[in-house]
Amino acid sequence: GTLKAPGTSNWGIRKIFIFNPIYFIGKGMFWGNLIGIGLCLIQQHFQIITLSQESYYVSTVPIYFNWLYIIMLNIGTLVVCSLSMLIPSYIITNISPIKAIRFN
After folding, report:
1. What are the residues whose beta carbons fall under 8 Å from the beta carbon of 99, sequence distance 6 or more?
2. Separation CA 47–CA 62 (nearest Å)
3. Phi and psi dihedrals of 50, rounded to 5?
4. What is the pLDDT of residues 62-77, one digit of tens each?
């Protein structure tokens, strides 16, 4: 309501509620991938996490990278999160400025 009262267009409001979350999701995905893939690479090369020989057939936790899976997971996550912001943006643009600003 406070954005619509001065005359912000519906598209301007939708941009706020769609593109800002996409920016933060992308930033979180970047840091998450950096930390997660970094830890996996450390495990793959240095075998830091070991397993007991009595319970398992391998001595360390094996790591397998399929870069296509990682890329597709990231794209899917970004698409689903972006689409989930569309419905609230449409609902928000239908709010009347008078109803949103009025105090009861």
Report:
1. 1
2. 8
3. -105, 160
4. 999 999 999 999 999 9
Got the DSSP string for 19-67?
A: HHHHHHHHHHHHHHHHHHHHHHHHHHHH--SB--TTT-SSSB------H
Tell how far CA 35 is from the center of its chain: 15
Distances from the Cα of 23 to the Cαs of 18, 47, 62, in angstroms?
A: 9, 35, 34
Contact 18, 86 (CB under 8 A): yes
- The pTM (predicted TM-score) of the whole model is 0.77
How much of the chain exceeds pLDDT 90, in percent?
A: 54
Helix axes 67-84, 86-93, angle to 10 degrees: 20
